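User: quick one - fold this with uridine-5'-diphosphate bound?
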Amino acid sequence: MTSSNTSTNTAESIVSVQIGPVKVGAFMHQQQLLETIISPDGQVFAGAAIAINPEKVMAARHDPKVAAMLSQAELRYADGIGVVMLMRRRLKQPVQRIPGCELWQSLMLRCAAYQVPVYLVGARSEVLAQTKVKLVHQGVPVVGATDGYFNDEQQLLAEIRQSGAKVIPVAMGSPRQEQLIARLRQQLPDCFFMGVGGSFDVFTGQVKRAPALWCRLHLEWLYRLLSQPSRIGRQGRLVQYLWLAIWERI
Ligand code: UDP
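Assistant: Sure. Structure tokens for the protein plus uridine-5'-diphosphate:
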């Protein structure tokens, strides 16, 4: 399916929608994306996935380097109601929002089910240690882990290689994690990478996720803003995004 602002994703026959300079894959449910990452016969997708929200779309509009970095990930999925609404309106299909944190947790369970080896990168060392324990308890084959404050990238690369990992979640926040993924994937072309931001903190209870009602009302971003007011600068472009989206100017 192709039109002026929609096209078919090369990674799969997944329709994508152009939002500003970013093409976003229209997934109808999370399982569709999970099965793209680890196929029903256990094949792991070689490449990277990245969550797209209005903040990233706006950053890409202002900075071609950000746009280029986002386009390096083959699987761009909508994590942000502002992006999903626009996609639904343009496609006239029930595109689903896929929260990155939930996708990551489901992917870990899929790794457990298919015994796909995982190497964890990112977060503070105690958070990482707790994340690892919890995942191993769920049956996830965690073959290695390095916290997000390492200073020898070559050593990290060597460790991942030696571990035989196939899936590598990177929890270092944007754009740090995407930049690292861009470098690592050149050396590890058979692996799957996913930037997961603060997911390890949420998973271990260091950072609270918004209560269910806020999530249902799609106000998770507001909850995060109120509980971490320092994020105001990062979310400042949201209003501008909404304005452009309402008038179909993006
Ligand atoms: N972090 C890291 N290395 C750094 C800076 C940050 O591993 O040099 C980790 C930090 O411990 C936290 C996560 O990155 O776990 C930041 O999450 P944030 O919520 O800022 O990411 P977002 O989801 O907003 O991209």
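One thing worth noting: The pocket of uridine-5'-diphosphate is lined by residues 122-124, 148-149, 171-174, 176, 197-198, 200-201 (CB under 6 Å).
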